[in-house]
Amino acid sequence: MERLERCGCRLRAGLAAGRVRGRLPWLLLAIVLLGSALKDGDLVPETPMRNKRNPLNVYFVKVAWAWTFWLLLPFIAVTTYQFAKSKFLYGPTKSILMVLRRLSALLVGTAIWYVCTRFFMYIENLTGTCSTSGKLSEPRQLYATKQECHQDNGIWNGFDISGHCFLLSYCALMIMEEVAVLEGLSIDQNSNLRVVINILFLSLCFLTVIWVFMFLCTAVYFHDFSQKLLGVLIGLSAWYGTYRFWYLKPFSPGLPLPNIPLTSKKYSYSR
Question: Where, by residue number, does the polypeptide cross the bilayer (predicted)?
C-alpha cells in the first residue's frame, strides 16, 4: 500500500495546477500533425500496432467509452461525496444529490459518443461507393450502406472521419478533468477510502496513457490527415463545449471543483 501511495502522490503532483490538462489538447493536435506527416512520408516502421486486430485495439479501443464510463463512475461518486461533505458541510441528502448531478456528466458523455459516432457513420455512407470483385458481365449493384457492401465482400470508399481520434481524445480529456477533484480533496492518510480512491485514480491514469498511445498509433498508421484532424477537432470541441462552457452554468452537471477557475486551482490533497 505504501508503494501505491507513493505512486499516487507523484502522479497527483504532476497533475497539480492544471499543467497536464492545459497541455494535453495541444499534444493531441501535435500528434495528429506529426503522425500524419510520418505516415504520408512512409517513415513509419512495421509494428504489430499496424494490425487492427492487435489486443489493445480489440480489448480497449473498441470499447473505449465503456472502460472510461465504468472507471469514472465510482471515482466521481466517491470523490464528489467526500468533497461535498468536507468542503460544503452538506448533509447526506444534499451530498447524494450533488453526486447524482456530477454523475450526469457521464450521461452527457454517452450522448456525445452516440451522436458523434452515428454522425460519422452517416457521413461515410453518404459519401461512399462500393468496389466489388464481381465479373464484368454481371450487373453492377448499388449499395446504400457500408454494411451492405461488406456483406457482398466489397470495399466501401467513403469519407471516414476518425472515430478513434474523436473518442480517444475526448475520453483522455474527460478523465483529466474529472481527476482534478483530487487537487481540492482532503482525506486522512490512513483511511480505507484513500486506498480506494488511489486505486481508481491510478487505473484512470493508466487508461489515459493507453488512450494517448493508441491515439498516436491511429495518427501514424490509419486514416487520411483530414479524417484524423476532423475527428480530433470534434473531440476537442466536445470537451471544450462541456467542461469549459456548459459545465460552468448553473443548470449543468457542474465541474469537479465547483466555481474554481483552472488557473487558480491549488493542489491540496493531503499527503
Answer: 58-83, 103-123, 195-222, 229-247
